[in-house]
Design goal:
64 residues, 86% helix
């Protein structure tokens, strides 16, 4: 049960990271123009989210 809850938390955190990174990049580009630091920060959030997503898809052992 704990493993199942942890998987749900990881999946939710991936979703939050990807949405935050993508929306931040779009808002930075089209509305606020915060600069390269914000662009790198939001891009890093996307990369981390994608890395965790890849780990959950290929790295975690599947339960039978």
């Amino acid at each position: 049960m704990i493993k199942n809850n942890m998987k749900q938390v990881v999946k939710l955190s991936v979703f939050i990271l990807l949405v935050t990174g993508t929306l931040g990049l779009l808002i930075n580009e089209f509305i606020f123009n915060w600069g390269s630091t914000a662009t790198l920060t939001f891009a890093a959030l996307n990369v981390v989210g994608l890395a965790i997503l890849a780990y959950t898809y290929w790295g975690m052992e599947k339960e039978a």
